[in-house]
Structure formats: structure tokens, C-alpha cells
Amino acid sequence: MSRGEPHETDCSEVLDHLYEFLDHEMPAGECAKFEVHIDECSPCLEKYGLEQAVKKLVKRCCGHDDVPADLRSKVMSRIDLIRSGQAVPDQDVVAEARAAEAAARAAKAAGDRGTGQRPAEA
């Protein structure tokens, strides 16, 4: 743990890239640097543990829902924009996600009605 000495890697850098670290999406050399920092820095270790627990909870509770393809595409496009440093358009992503989810549910319900009806009696 840190004894008040400065770290080789700044806490802000670790926290800015925490999800890349958690998701194993960074080069091995960077991972090793982050592991050393997290082992030495109790505030970063605490944040890492919290985010790791949240990811596990979300996976357990929401990991079985199908994500509409258009929503996945929009999210991935936004992530790519952020990673490239480009300006991200001002859009309400939450509202878009809810609208996409509602549309998917409506389509599923319409499909269920088409196949789930009882035949007409003669």
C-alpha cells in the first residue's frame, strides 16, 4: 500500500482507464503497470474493487438479455468516437436505449400475438 509516496503511474490515469483494465482490453505492459499501482494505492484499489463488483452484479442480473443490434451499433460507435478523441454528439443515450428497448419489446409482442393465438372455433 502507498505510504504517502508518489506513484510511478498517476491515479487519474489509472481511473481514466479502469474499465479497459477490468475488461482486459489493454496491452500486457500497461496491465502490469496498473497492477503495480493498484497494489500500492489503497484508494485506487478500493475503486477497482467497487467497479469489479458492479460489473459482476450487472453480468449476473442483466447478462441474459438480448441487446438490439442498432443499440449495440450506436454504443460501439460512441465508444469509438470517445477513444479517438473526437467530439461526441450531444444525444440522450439513455432515452435512445429506452426507445430501442421499447421497440424491441413491441416487435416481440407483435410476433407473439401472431403465433400465440388460438385457432377460431367453428
Write the layout of secondary structure elements.
Layout: H1 11-16, H2 18-22, H3 28-40, H4 42-62, H5 69-84, H6 93-115
Helix pairs in contact: 3-4
Number of helices: 6
Shape field: elongated
Query: Can you give the helix content as a percent range?
Result: 55-70%
Low-pLDDT ranges:
117-122
Give the SSE order as H and E letters.
HHHHHH
Q: Mind explaining what this structure looks like?
A:
It contains six helices and no strands. It is mostly helical and 122 residues long. It has two domains: 64 residues, no CATH class; 51 residues. Helix 3 crosses helix 4. The longest helix has 23 residues. This is Anti-sigma factor RsrA. InterPro entries: Anit_sigma_mycothiol_RsrA (IPR024020), Znf_put (IPR027383). It comes from Streptomyces mashuensis.
Task: Please provide a brief summary of the model.
By secondary structure, the protein is mainly alpha-helical. Helix content is 69%, strand content 0%.
Offer a few descriptive terms.
disordered C terminus; 122 residues; 69% helix; mainly alpha
